[in-house]
Design brief:
The chain is mostly helical. It has one domain: Farnesyl Diphosphate Synthase, CATH 1.10.600. The chain has 18 helices and two strands. It has a two-stranded parallel sheet with strand order 1-2. Helix 5 packs antiparallel against helix 6. The radius of gyration is 19 Å and the shape is globular.
Length: about 350
Amino acid sequence: MSDVFNNTILLHQQGAFSRGGYSITISKEPWRKTISMQTFTQDLAQFGPQAPPPNTPMTLRRAKKYCRQLARRHYENFTVASFLLPRRLKQHFCNVYAYCRWADDLADETGDPKKSLALLGWWETQLRDCYRGRASHPVFLALAETIETFEIPADPFIDLLVAFRQDQRVTRYETIDQILEYCRYSANPVGRLVLYLGECFSAERARLADSVCTGLQLANFCQDVARDWERGRIYLPMTDCQRFGYAEASFEKRECNDAFRRLLAVEVEQAEGFLRAGLPLVKSVPPELQLDISLFIHGGLAILQAVRKLNFDVWTRRPTVAKMEKFRLLAQCWWRLKTGK
């Protein structure tokens, strides 16, 4: 699944709530990936279903500290991102992120779909126990406080697991409608969770947030064609690939030809449409969240522009947003809100 939480919740890191912060991309060099895998293995041994009983009970204070450390460990930009959040929300965002990070790792870091499905089933059991007041895992001890404080239903958390499970079974999508249905579970719950944390959930805001998160997910698919292919997945509609004459053999060759450029141009335009359709969400949320939401959207648009600047050759180089461009986006979004434009 793509990094939407990561791309969304942590101030545009690039790359949700899963694959991705704020910018929309996060660097995952081989050494970072190795460290991430080692950390996941250690955490799974300590807190997973086969972990021995702890010597001392996990306290809420320690659980919350663990969630904060987990967020910062994965994203060096988290400190900057959290700076933009109201102080009272920072811990709660870390708690929700920790849930998504664990689910993402359980899905993608085992290297075995059957094992991943079993672990995701265990994770859902932990979630349901949390809602029954029987939390024991540190993530759920911390998350229980967030759920109670903001009266968050289980649906968005469970929906994310639907997408993680789907990634273990489905690696190709025939139509854009099938991909949008996937986004309903992989991306849209993230925006809804943000609305609950902002205490501003409504049907209309949820509709706009869905459009933003779907756009971010589609942008991530365009950005990560090469990375997804390495994982054995294609998140571009196969009907569109066939329409432009870009066969799976071309994916194998990592070929950036005219057919691929036309194909990706269509996908980029579609992602932009969803992001722009969600722009009214910015002014409809409380002022303390407006800058973050604006950055989510414009960070996604910046990634799409980066794809275009590469002339859609995402095989040779992964499109990202430069640090100075991120600062420019931040200044522009702040100025727009200050001037009411």
